[in-house]
């Protein structure tokens, strides 16, 4: 189910932005009791496709998932995206971002806060959970960083 999160841009800001829509698929993963973590994301803006991944060192799977979301949202803003539709295979992250669950754990709280700071920078933001096999490119980028 897709969840739309209200954003807070002013009417003036909205009018000054061109309506550029992006689709973001993000993923994160960790190995060996959180000793190695990485994320990957795929950002599609019209015919432009951006794929990025990064090894983030020690971290949990949830930290890596959030790092992927934050990196993808940051790249989208950098590229002028005003409407973003995000997809991730972590149901926990999706439910925390939409406010259905609280993000209480201290190891993810800073990344959660950064994601919540980025979201209002878009005219429109939606996020949806999907299964790993529907998120295979972002998953593959993440695994390449971990291998």
UniProtKB/TrEMBL annotation:
Transmembrane segments: none annotated. Residues 1-29 are annotated as: Disordered. Residues 18-147 form the RNase H type-1 domain. It holds the Pfam family RVT_3. This is Ribonuclease HI family protein.
